[in-house]
Fold this protein.
Amino acid sequence: MSGPAKILLITGGKYHDFDLARLVLLNLMAEDERIRATCASDFSECSALGGYRAIVLYTCDLLPGDDAAAALESFVANGGRLLALHGANAGLEFTDGPEIVTSGVRIPGLVKPTAETAAPGFMRLLGSRFVAHLAGQPMHIHVEDADHPITAGLEDFTVTDEPYIASPLAEYRTLLSARYKGEAPGYLLGQWDDDPPRPQLYVRSHGLGEVAYSPLGHACGRYDALQLMDEAPVVRGPWDDAAFQELLRRCIAWLIA
């Protein structure tokens, strides 16, 4: 397809450094002169998706309303591509308490798995629902499927990130995986002793279009968790990592292919 490739980049929500993610993603998009990016901090732009080739989501506890969710589903069904990262499939709720205070963090209660009633159509479109995550740690990312354009020629790599636990909601094709188990501090489901290969990037078809989701990409700046603490430890996660940036670069190329 000739002409500019318009991408809608939505970054926003809670507990994450959306500025860092936006900056890195825009810099990577700028490497391709065909791309013209529009930035939004919520799903309000979904009311007018005509002309866009692709959508990228880096969000957490930011879910679309019914109209926006329907617009996203229609966009993909009609041939668009959607890349969702990290907490895009997370709708956070807490138990009734008691409040937990640890290392200066005020948690009103344990974090519940994302509810089945939280934007169900949107979650099915993404293909999974967030449940919990282990503490940030080095993760060995294994290439499960090298026959896809995103992963063709890609080698295994290691990043430091939050190991995510998610419930599958649809069939998908796993491209990258990792194995991990242990404690998920602060979560209602706080212990994970099984050790299956957990998807770190998958793709799925929906109508004429496709969705890709990766749980990788945690980052938090000094004032990005004011709901829980006055100042947070700065965590840039994998965003400075060359291997992670190469993965994002490949995802962006796939979005407009």
Summary: DSSP finds four helices and 15 strands in the chain.
